[in-house]
Structure formats: C-alpha cells, structure tokens
Amino acid sequence: MKISHLYWPVTFFSTAFGAGIFFLPQAVGPGVLGMKVFMLFIVIAMSVSMMAHYLFFKFIISHPEKDFLAASSTFIGERAAAIVCVLFILSMIIIVLINFITLVNVVASFFHNGFWVRGGISLLLSAALSAAWLAFSQRVEHLISRMALVSIVLVAILAVFFLLQPAGGRQAVQASPGISLQTWLLLPIFLFTFNFTPCIQRFAKSAVRPQARSILFGKVLIMAFIVMIVIAISRLLTLG
C-alpha cells in the first residue's frame, strides 16, 4: 500500500461530507446522547458503511473502466443503470444540501439573521464553492491533500488538548436503562456522516492498482479522527 493510496481519506475532509463531522457534536455528540450511546451508534454506522463501501469498491473495479455507471450497465442494463445513477446523485445532493444549509446557518449567526442576509450568504458560498469545483484538477487534488493533511494534524493536536481538559459547566447526560425511539431516529445522521462513496469512486478510478485494504484502512483512519474530534468538541462545549 502506497502513501498515494491514503489521499482519499485525507481529501474526504475537504469535501462537504467531511465538513459535516464538525456539526456532529451539537447534534448527536456525547453531550447529547451520552458516551455509551454515541459509541454504539459510531460502531454500527462504521460497520454498515465499511461493508457497503467494500462491496461498492469491488463492484466498481470489476469493470475495466472502473466506473459506477459502466459497471451498473453491464449487470442491469443501461436504462436501469441510468435510474440507479440518478438516485445515487440525488442521495449525494441531499447530503451536500444538509451540510450547506448548516454552513449557511453557522455563517448567518454572526450577522443580522435576516432573509436578505441569508440569501446573500448562500449566493456567495455557492458561487465560491462552484468556482473552486470548476477549477479542480488532479494536481490541485494532491495539493489539497497535502494541505488538508497538515490541517488534520493541527486539529488532532487541538483535539488531544481538549480531550485532556476536565469536563465541567454543563451537567452530563444521565444514563438511561434503554435507548428511546427518538434516539434511534438519530442513527441515520451517523450513516450520512460515514458515506464516502464519491471519494471511493474517485480513488478507484484514479489509482493504478486500487486495493481494498486501502479503503478499509482509510475508513478506520477517518473513524478514529471523527471520534476524537467529536468527543473533543463536546468536551469543549461543556467547559466553562
């Protein structure tokens, strides 16, 4: 396994999907669910996504073009493959919209929360992100990977610092004898967070000899980083 095979988990954090993990502590962090429930949901989501993405990766590389649409066309026909690909794209758009709306809410909270302000922020962010996407290239991808790697190391150091801080201020979540239905309904948020299919598709297509163990190792790396960041930010929110 080459170091270039680890570009995909690094570039994951520069996507809309990777950015979504920083909104987890306020929504489904240990301070909201409790540490045991949080870790249970993380393990469930990681196990489900690991099996699904492993099969997705093997399915893509089974075709010489290493493309999802081409592989689907071979197995189920062109029309059915087109429908599946449209549904696949829609699922990605939904995740991007969820994270984009959350990003707009965070930025808008620093200004006067009016309709025109939110609209202007949405236009500026969408224009900036679209321009960055149009300017994207293979060289830029490797550059972003290296820059993101430095950022990840710095964030990890900060996460370790806040993990070592004693929690206080807010009261800890009381442990309950069972998990309520309302809590179980938060599980899809974890499943959305561990959806890396666009990164896996790009890795399978760009790598000369893509290996499944690179996917599995990358997912474990992302899981460890997500758990550390979410717990650290949750402890930071309880300080004071």
Q: Given the structure, what is the number of helices?
A: 13
H-E order: HHHHHHHHHHHHH
Report how far the terminal alpha carbons are from each other.
45 Å
In total, how many domains does the architecture comprise? 1
Computed Rg? 19 Å
Beta-strand share of residues: under 5%
Principal-axes geometry comes out as: globular
**Structural class determined from secondary elements:** mainly alpha
Largest sheet, strands/sense/barrel:
none
What portion of residues is helical?
A: over 70%
Mean pLDDT: 70
Q: List segments where confidence is low: pLDDT < 50 over at least 5 consecutive residues.
A: 169-173
Number of extended strands: 0
How are the secondary structure elements laid out?
Elements: H1 7-12, H2 16-19, H3 24-28, H4 30-33, H5 35-61, H6 68-76, H7 78-108, H8 115-134, H9 138-163, H10 181-184, H11 187-193, H12 197-206, H13 212-238
Description:
The chain is mostly helical and 240 residues long. It has one domain. The chain contains 13 helices and no strands. It has helices spanning 7-12, 16-19, 24-28, 30-33, 35-61, 68-76, 78-108, 115-134, 138-163, 181-184, 187-193, 197-206, 212-238. Helix 5 packs parallel to helix 12. The longest helix has 31 residues, at 78-108. The chain is globular. The protein starts with 6 loop residues before the first helix and ends with a helix. The chain crosses the membrane at residues 7-25, 37-61, 81-103, 115-136, 143-164, 216-237. Keywords: Cell inner membrane, Cell membrane, Membrane, Transmembrane, Transmembrane helix, Transport. InterPro entries: Amino_acid_transport_2.
